[in-house]
Amino acid sequence: MHDQHALLLTDVRNRVGHLTLNRVSAFNAINLEMVRGIQQQLDEWAADEEVVAVVLRANGDKAFCAGGDIRELYANAKQGNSLNATFFSEEYALDQWIHAYPKPMIALMDGLVLGGGMGLAQGASFRIVTEKARLGMPEVSIGFFPDVGGSYFLSRLSGEIGTYMGVTGNPVGAADALQLGLADWFLHQEQISELDRCLDTMQWGHSSQEAIRSLLNTLASKHASGAQLTAVRSAIDKHFAHHSIAEIIASLASESDASIQAWRDDILATLKTRSPLAMATTLEMLRRGKQLSLADCFRLEYHLGSQWFTKGDFMEGVRALIIDKDKNPQWQPATIEDLEHTKLDELFAGFKARSA
């Protein structure tokens, strides 16, 4: 697929399959056609003995993938067709397959890696970030919850950092991503061509996994400077450990350390703009996800998502932030105090974990 208008470009060089997201004008946002194309290509390469490794990457310098195609989801829900259910089931199946992929996969995260982009990258064996990378699950800002496996990978980060990321929707830069375990390797943007040159000339031995690891050991780093969250990690672990959003907010409000007052004010202001239902659902989902297998995490997200277009705040969030751009979503309920616990219970009702 070398048509420059194609949503995906593929190339096999020196036994490495390069799959490039090519929807640059939309920040490489992923839609059903792309999900199907990626799935088909990864299936082919998994079965092809000539291919020893895969690189997942993107064109444009702004984004690896800024998430799912929100406008398309909005349009489908407005039309009342079943395409959103199809999209989520196929997207989640693809993301789950990436976690289990039989060959080493490099996710090259340069630029924005949000929502659906995290779903593609987090299951890869080698997660590389550049200095331009911004990783996050911003779903609560449009009245949704962190899906694409977020209930699995966020809930397994150390302390309450995953709770903080899911409930605030705030992204992190490369240095924090490496420290937190959302990325494995740091590579300067200008070194990507060097990485490609090395992959193009590698002598593949018995283990491509080992060969790539030793290449990254010489070329890349495990750390980057400029971590932002180091100073507030203990505050995050303290405040975001509570069992309800109201308690998290009260806890933040009681923070007495003057050195992090500005950060605290910023977080409280952010939480005020987020959908109360989405935040509460996210918190409950992450607490449950910590105990669930990867497959059950995807099932739980699908269970919530299948109800969300009618019961959740997604349509209003997208309307306010993306369609009408009035930036004034009318969340239902409007405040966390008005959220009845029965509403949460209803969303989770009927979900049963299948694997131990």
Number of domains: 2
Q: Superfamily at the CATH H level of the largest domain?
A: 2-enoyl-CoA Hydratase, Chain A, domain 1
What is the general shape? globular
The separation of the N and C termini measures 41 Å
Count of helix runs: 16
- Order of adjacent strands in the largest pleated sheet: 1-2-3-5-7-10
Largest sheet: 6 strands, mixed
Which consecutive residue ranges, at least 5 long each, have pLDDT under 50? Answer: none
Kindly state the number of beta strands.
Answer: 10
Mean pLDDT: 96
* Helix and strand sequence: EEHEEHHEEHEEHHEHEHHHHHHHHH
CATH first level of the largest domain:
Alpha Beta
User: Which CATH-level-2 architecture of the largest domain?
Assistant: Alpha-Beta Complex
CATH topology of the largest domain: 2-enoyl-CoA Hydratase, Chain A, domain 1
Secondary-structure-based class equals: alpha/beta
Helix share of residues? Answer: 40-55%
* β-sheet strand percentage: 5-15%
Rounded to an integer in angstroms, the radius of gyration calculated over CA atoms is: 20 Å
Polypeptide structure, described:
It is a single chain. With 356 residues, the chain is an alpha/beta fold. The chain folds into two domains: 8-136 and 185-219, 2-enoyl-CoA Hydratase, Chain A, domain 1, CATH 3.90.226.10; 230-348, no CATH class. Helices cover 47% and strands 11% of the residues. It has 16 helices and ten strands. The chain has helices at 32-47, 70-79, 83-99, 116-121, 150-153, 161-168, 174-180, 192-201, 208-219, 233-239, 245-253, 261-273, 276-289, 294-311, 314-323, 341-348; strands spanning 8-13, 16-21, 53-58, 63-65, 105-109, 112-114, 126-129, 134-136, 172-173, 185-186. The chain has a six-stranded mixed β-sheet, sandwiched between helices. Strands 4-6-8-9 form a four-stranded mixed β-sheet. Strand 2, helix 1 (32-47) and strand 3 form a beta-alpha-beta unit. Helix 3 (83-99) packs antiparallel against helix 14 (294-311). It starts with 7 loop residues before the first strand and ends in an 8-residue tail after the last helix.
